[in-house]
Amino acid sequence: MANAEFVFIGGSDTGNPHAYLVSEESKNADDPIHLEHGKPISLPATGQYDLFLEVPGYPLIRQRLHIDAESHPPVVKPADRCLQRSLSISRERNTNPASGAQSDWLFVLRGAFAKPKEFVFVVGQDYKALHKLVIKKGESRYLELMKGPWRGKKKPFQDIAKYSSTRMNDLLRRNSGIGRIADASTLVTVFDFRTGVRKIFMLHGCEKGARPDEQSLDKSWRPVHRFDYGAPLPMADELGGLSVTDVYRWIVDGVDEYPGRVVEFSFFSHAWIQGPILVNTSDFVGVEVPNRDDTDHDARVKDFSGIEFDLKKFARAFADDSQCFNFGCFASQDLRAAIDLVTSDAKEDKAIYININDDRQRKTKAQSRKGLARIMKGCYSMALAEASGRPCWGAPAGIGSNHREKRVGGRSSWYHFIRPIGDIERMRKIYGIEKNTRGYFRYDKALAKRLEAFL
Questions:
Q1: Of the ranges 101-115, 229-243, 255-269, 337-351, which one carries the lowest mean pLDDT score?
Q2: CA 444 to CA 394: how far, in whole Å?
Q3: Structural domains in the chain?
Q4: 8 Å CB contact between 189 and 118
């Protein structure tokens, strides 16, 4: 066996990480090989190892390593050919080894962890493709009709996760227009309401020679942490399982250690005026009651009342240049009728009949203009923007989101967008609303003030 040593040199914004090796053969995490910062140890015996790193502000990081202490020279390399980008391994001549022999080798594992930049993605279930079966009186369960992408017109099932996967791939491409490029400090946390699981991804290296715009999701993003919230979803009639409140608490937790870590907070799901539909549960206590229904998993406007979590900490979690996205719909036939009236050349006393809380009411053009302002000011996208202190891009009032496929680098990429419609553009100009390249409106505190003038 070659006389070689192994040393870990690492640091983060809050100090040195805690590092240790666990042999895959023994799999005894209770008896690890501890790696003290800057202190060499003898190279472990040949085999597969799990390197664990406990870094403040990051999830527990696992990197698989292969050590061959029998070869000449010995070898230390990632077992899966992908090394996390915040790590590097170098083999150096050991000029001052513990044994005193100048020909020995020193393997240096270096890790540098900057302040984490976190993308928080929430993936909802396609509740429209679920079939409700009544098992017995007073009890019901939801069964999924099918899995996979859109397959024909008879059984349309939307695999909503493909939109978040596209977003993750966009972080690797400099020409994606997303405005950010992932680096070694980037975390992507995905709350998947289809499975009730939270996964955290970090960047790994890819095969030598590949450019960032050629990297695929499976080569570049690797899960470093997985947490199962228990009950499989959707289970609309049971307590437990993943809820939107778990997402809020995740953002708030750790803000004292790393304020400003969240650079994007996005919902990939169906939605309505009250917020993203993640499971399609109900709020039986009512909209007027500030407390959440314990059986409700979906997002609500009243989530930002300050009861469920600390609003000040929630706002501190967002970076100064961060943004939020609510990619779901804001569709309503009655709102569309009001928009048609408000954007028309009709006189101010022209009236239409629309349904408000199942009550058919007569509204004039002036009343409709005021009502649209009130609805946009009270919608979920606005509530999220005001609570986070950052803009939230969401669908225009009365409009549904559309989706399209685009081939990028030989792969299918899926995006949400708002189809351009003349009366929506006229409404945008009436209320002074900014939109992005995909047609989503910018909801923020400035817009809330402008809408206030119409009330």
A1: 229-243
A2: 11
A3: 4-113 (2.60.40), 117-452 (no CATH)
A4: yes
Amino acid at 326: N
Distance CA 222, CA 127 (A): 28
Contact yes or no for 418/402 (Cβ under 8 A): yes
Residue whose C-alpha is closest to residue 268's, from 401, 436, 131, 169: 401
Binned at pLDDT 50, 70 and 90, residue 369 comes out as very high
DSSP assignment of 140-190 equals EEEEE---SS--TTTS----THHHHHHHHHHTT-TTSSSS----TTEEEEE
Confidence tier at 316 by pLDDT (50, 70, 90): very high
pTM to 2 decimal places: 0.87
For the chain, counts of helices (H) and of strands (E): 9, 25
CA distances from 361 to 6, 61, 244, 399, 455 (A): 76, 58, 34, 21, 19
Nearest to 444 by CA among 397, 398, 376: 376
- pLDDT recorded at residue 444: 98
At 161, give phi and psi (nearest 5°).
-65, -20
Nearest to 7 by CA among 85, 105, 100, 113: 105
Give the list of residues 6+ apart from residue 453 with CB closer than 8 angstroms, or none: none
Q: Of 424, 363, 417, whose CA–CA distance to 394 is shortest?
A: 417
d(CA 109, CA 16): 13
Rounded CA-CA distance 38/440 in Å is: 51
Q: What is the pLDDT of residue 27?
A: 63
Quickly tell me which residue has 């009728």 as its tokens. 337
Query: How many Cβ atoms from other residues are within 10 Å of residue 141's Cβ?
Result: 15
SS3 338: helix
